[in-house]
Amino acid sequence: MEPGLAPAPGGLLDWRDAQHFDHYRTAPCALCGTATPMGSHPGEPAHKTCAENWIAANPTEARRGRFASDIQPRSRHDDDHA
Ligand SMILES: [Zn+2]
Fold first, then answer.
1. Does a structural domain hold residue 77?
2. Is residue 41 part of a domain?
3. 46 CA to middle of ligand 1, Å?
4. In Å, how far are 16, 32, 53, 67 from 58, measured between CA atoms?
5. What distance in Å separates the CA atoms of residue 80 and residue 82, rounded to the nearest whole number?
6. pLDDT by residue (tens digit) across 27-60?
C-alpha cells in the first residue's frame, strides 16, 4: 500500500488500513520505546499518537514522509462527467 501525505503539524494521521496494526507481535516504538503493535508505512514501529507528536515537533522532517496518512480512495462521483 502506498503512503499518502504527512498530515500538517498538529493534525491526525489516518492509519485505518490493517497494515498499521500487527496482530501477532509488538515492537518497541521508535519514538517512546514502549511496545506497540502499530507501525508506519515502511514498517517502523511507532504509536500513532507518538508519530503525530513527532510530526508536530519536527514539521520540516515530517514533510519527507517518515509518517504519512493512508491514501484515501477517490470518490466515484468524480467519474460521472461523460
Ligand atoms: Zn510510542
1. no
2. yes
3. 5
4. 23, 15, 9, 11
5. 6
6. 999 999 999 999 999 999 999 999 999 999 999 9
